[in-house]
């Protein structure tokens, strides 16, 4: 099942790169289409080093977004990413897109998308032990 999620995720990232590139080109070439840059703080459901690295890399490879900082998680707090988004209409729209990307990534790495935010790495370990 993870292979199917992996292929799907690669297709999703490829599509995000294409649509992000088109968005940037069309907004830059049209007069009056200004960027609305913002930095969004996003608490993660990713907790392992691999998941955080893959997610940060996926964000950065997508045109118009860039991970500016990563705050490490603790046993009670999840890791946090600070993402610079160039052409999002609102913080909610930016976070919605990022959470969608994260859900797809976690479906690939864990075999299924998480139901809610992980409060600790212990929860993830318990979730991975379930069949």
Automatic annotation (TrEMBL):
<dbReference type="InterPro" id="IPR002758">
    <property type="entry name" value="Cation_antiport_E"/>
</dbReference>
<feature type="region of interest" description="Disordered">
    <location>
        <begin position="110"/>
        <end position="131"/>
    </location>
</feature>
<keyword id="KW-0812">Transmembrane</keyword>
<dbReference type="Pfam" id="PF01899">
    <property type="entry name" value="MNHE"/>
</dbReference>
<dbReference type="GO" id="GO:0005886">
    <property type="term" value="C:plasma membrane"/>
</dbReference>
<keyword id="KW-0472">Membrane</keyword>
<keyword id="KW-1003">Cell membrane</keyword>
<feature type="transmembrane region" description="Helical">
    <location>
        <begin position="6"/>
        <end position="29"/>
    </location>
</feature>
<protein>
    <submittedName>
        <fullName>Sodium:proton antiporter</fullName>
    </submittedName>
</protein>
<keyword id="KW-1133">Transmembrane helix</keyword>
<feature type="compositionally biased region" description="Low complexity">
    <location>
        <begin position="110"/>
        <end position="123"/>
    </location>
</feature>
<dbReference type="GO" id="GO:0008324">
    <property type="term" value="F:monoatomic cation transmembrane transporter activity"/>
</dbReference>
<comment type="similarity">
    <text>Belongs to the CPA3 antiporters (TC 2.A.63) subunit E family.</text>
</comment>
């Amino acid at each position: 099942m993870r292979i199917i999620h992996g292929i799907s995720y690669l297709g999703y990232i490829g599509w995000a790169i294409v649509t992000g590139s088109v968005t940037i080109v069309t907004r830059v070439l049209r007069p009056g289409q200004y960027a609305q840059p913002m930095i969004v703080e996003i608490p993660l459901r990713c907790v392992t080093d691999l998941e955080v690295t893959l997610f940060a890399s996926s964000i950065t490879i997508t045109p118009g977004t860039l991970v500016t900082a990563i705050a490490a998680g603790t046993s009670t707090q999840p890791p946090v990413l600070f993402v610079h988004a160039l052409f999002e209409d609102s913080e909610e729209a930016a976070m919605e897109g990022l959470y969608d990307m994260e859900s797809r990534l976690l479906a690939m790495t864990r075999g299924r998308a998480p139901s809610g935010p992980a409060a600790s790495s212990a929860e993830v370990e318990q979730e991975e032990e379930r069949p």
